[in-house]
Design brief:
Length: 397
């Protein structure tokens, strides 16, 4: 589909984002939207080459800031700044390029991004095509929620940021520490999330209750093969032993985790609860799932995807910031929460990541798995499609 004029053979049309399908172009003008989202410089280079036969060609990009400081967008930004700074520099060695025009609306270095007086620098149309009240709403959210800060800085202030940021404000998490008797939550709807290790790492199980007033309560348990401590750093092994002695991290015999042990202990842990669903990540867990289903327990697969976990993470964060989240203070879970990093995509979806392999996040992932199911059928009956019949094939949701 395009806009065209038959008499001159001219046309205006969208083109593929795959540079391999763009060879042979002969263009007067190329428009690139959101250049920061381009993972490679290939499309930009193809468009530049495609203007070679034109006397007055033009390529221009419209973009906000982003994360990738190694990409084509930041490269163009860096070049643009050099051109602007050297516009009237008499030094013959300075960069001068009369064919290159750049206009960058952003904050100055050292500006407070939450000071309203600075916002017009990045938003010349503020109050006209962008509302002040909307900017204030976004700023308030970004100030309170770490995950929202990246989007506010890049999309609304044109500030470049690092790729991944710590997700949780741990001072907020600490404020949610609470104690309660198991009899209090026994009648509340509960979802159990499990993230099994690949036999040699930490496995996690997390209970998530929905209280009658809408608050969320969370308890967690963790297991690791004791033999694996020899492969850990001295500091990590000491920390694991400390948690084990305090009852927060359970050791299993040998060098590999026994999924049968976790299954038995988890089922016993959930006994007497109003269990809605036993939710788990299906990675390397088929036999585990079948054995749980054989016990007559409603079990559902929740693959670790953005679709399944993004809204769950946002809901957990919202509950924490609203003071409607309660956790049991397990230090293993607290450590893992501090390890969670996020890098929102262009649609502001988030997904739990970790900066290094040593920064475990199994507990938070198990919690997000359970929360994702709470959001699907919170407080209601279990969707029959989400259960597993041990005599049937597994159903992937």
């Amino acid at each position: 589909m395009n806009i065209h004029q038959e008499r001159t053979g001219s046309k205006f049309e969208p083109v593929a984002s795959d540079a391999n399908n763009l060879d042979g172009l002969n263009i007067h003008c190329g428009i690139v939207d959101e250049l920061h989202a381009h993972k490679t410089r290939d499309v930009w280079e193809v468009l530049e080459t495609a203007t070679g036969a034109r006397l007055q060609s033009l390529i221009f990009a419209i973009t906000t800031a982003g994360f990738n400081r190694e990409g084509i967008c930041y490269e163009q930004r860096d070049y643009a700044i050099k051109v602007l700074k050297n516009f009237d520099n008499p030094d013959p060695l300075s960069i001068k390029d009369d064919s290159y025009f750049a206009l960058i609306y952003t904050l100055d270095e050292g500006d407070d991004p939450f000071d309203e007086a600075n916002w017009p620098k990045a938003n010349p149309g503020l109050g006209i095509c962008k509302r002040w009240d909307d900017m204030r709403r976004l700023a308030k959210k970004a100030k309170e929620q770490v995950a929202a800060r990246v989007g506010f800085f890049t999309k609304h202030l044109n500030i470049w940021v690092q790729g991944e940021k710590a997700w949780m404000d741990m001072s907020r998490w600490e404020k949610c520490r609470d104690t309660w008797d198991d009899s209090t939550t026994a009648s509340w709807s509960m979802w159990l999330g499990v993230d099994l290790s690949n036999k040699i790492d930490i496995s996690a199980a997390v209970k998530v209750w929905l209280a009658p007033n809408g608050d969320v309560y969370v308890r967690s348990r963790f297991w690791i093969p004791e033999g694996r401590l020899e492969a850990c750093t001295k500091q990590q092994a000491e920390l694991y032993r400390k948690w084990n002695q305090a009852g927060y991290l359970e050791f299993t015999d040998g060098d590999v985790i026994d999924h049968a042990v976790i299954k038995e202990e988890t089922i016993e842990w959930a006994r007497g609860e109003s269990l809605n669903e036993f939710a788990y990540d299906p990675w390397s867990a088929t036999q585990f799932a079948l054995s749980v289903a054989a016990e007559g327990i409603p079990i559902v697969e929740v693959p670790q995807t953005v679709k399944n976990l993004s809204e769950a993470m946002k809901e957990v964060e919202a509950k924490i910031y609203a003071g409607r989240f309660h956790h049991d203070g397990n230090p293993v879970m607290t450590w893992m929460m501090s390890n969670v990093t996020v890098k929102p995509d262009k649609n502001e979806n988030i997904f739990p990541n970790k900066a290094t392999p040593e920064n475990k996040i199994d507990g938070p992932v198990a919690m997000f798995i359970a929360m994702s199911r709470l959001l699907v059928n919170g407080g209601g009956e279990v969707d029959f499609l989400s259960t597993i019949d041990p005599d049937e094939d597994l159903l992937l949701l």
